[in-house]
Structures are given as structure tokens and as C-alpha cells.
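Side project, low priority. Logging it here so it doesn't get lost.
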Amino acid sequence: MSLKKIFVSIMASCLVVMLAYPALAELNLDALPRKDIMMVKSLLKKLKPLIKERQADSTLATLSFDELYAPLNEKEAQLLKNFQGLDAKALNVKIPFRGLATGKEPLTKITGQRVRYINVQNGASHELGVQYLPEQVYAKYTDMMAAMQKDIGKRLLIESGYRSSAYQLYLFVFYLKNHEYSIRETVKWVALPGYSEHGAPAHQAIDFINVLGINGEYNTKEFEDLPEYHWLMKHAAEFGFVLSYPKNDQSGITYEPWHWRLDERQ
């Protein structure tokens, strides 16, 4: 066979492969085109029954990538993989890659946490949703809360703990609509999979809330003024926890006095 025929044969084979497995088009980071927006809406609609089912049995935080992709057709799955493979550097993400959380790690299921709201009559309370933490992190958390209780007669609850990287990916795509389908804007508010400390068992984050429902989300000073916060600032490091996003942090992340992570170096 001549070199020309060999070359033609190779090119034909490559074309067949490209047609069978089309390359993913690059996502527009500033504003998704209409066709991508429509496909995002389509895949979210496909995923809605799965998400509702996992919410109902309190296992959404442990969602795996296989489970996330299963309801989607080929084009929808390709688009989702494009989001999963976004280049953090191109998006000016300054926080470090923490690794992917599979949803299969040994986790402690946390239930029965109740919040009593200020200005609510008759002592009405609300139960926080089921949370998960890696077993070793939960052990450190319970030790820390026991010490806080002993010192100041108070403790903090877990408003948000572990969530898998697949769930983080879903959240990123879900919240695109809140930022006019701009990836650059969304990434300022929602971490990419692998970059959230809530999905990093070795650097696991906990978002705290006190028993009166104060979490600082809408008013950071409310949380800063809590005796529980002042205790954390003095003693959390003794249990391996650090404040992830202090004021004027170089990561560019907004100050979050409620967000603490386990740091094995402590």
C-alpha cells in the first residue's frame, strides 16, 4: 500500500472516531449562547426527579458522578462534562484544588439538630436538614463542642457539612441562571467541583449556626458578636480547625466568619 493510501486510510479512521465521539465545544465563559442555555435547562429538568428523590431520603450530599450523569443523553452529558472540566486558572480561581469527593467516603450522618429562632413565640424550633461529615472530622467537631460547652455553656450546630463533588457540579450548573448564565460570575459565588472545602475530606469545612439561628449569612457582624465565635477564634486551632476566609483574604473569597475547615497541620 502506498504512503498516500495509508495516509488517507488513517485520516478516514480519525474522522470516524471524531464523528462517533464529537469533541466538546469550548464553553463561553462570559455568557453562554442560547443553545447551551437551552441544554442547561433541559439537563436540569432531566435531573429534577433524581434531585427530589435524593432530597427526600437525605442523601443528596452523597451523590456520585455516575448517578448524576445516568439520566442524561449523550449531548447533555457532554455539556455537563464540559462544566466539570472548566479551567480554574482561566477563571482566575485562587483557592487551591482540594480533590474530588466521591460520595463513598466513610461519613457520619448527623440528625436531630434543632434551632430556636429569636422573636418566635412559644419557643418554636426548626430542625436543620440531615448533614454529613467524614468520621474523623465529626469526632474533632464533637470534642471541640464539648470544650466550648464546658467553657461558656454554648455550642454551635452544623448548618452545612460534607457534599460530594458531583453535587457541587450540580449546584454550579443550577445557579448559572442567577448570574445570567455567565460562568465567570457564577464561579465568584459557587465553587467548582474539587475546589469546595465542603467536598474535601482532608480539609473538610463546616458552616456553623448557633442554636438561635444566627449564621452571619446576611449580617456577618451578628455572627462575629457571638460568644461562640470569640471562643472559636481563641480555641479552634487546638482541635485542628481554622477560619477559611478571614477578612481581606488573598483568595478573594468574601469574609465568612461561620466557615471553618479542618487543617491537619494544626
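Brief comment: The two ends are 67 Å apart (CA to CA).
Revisit when time allows.
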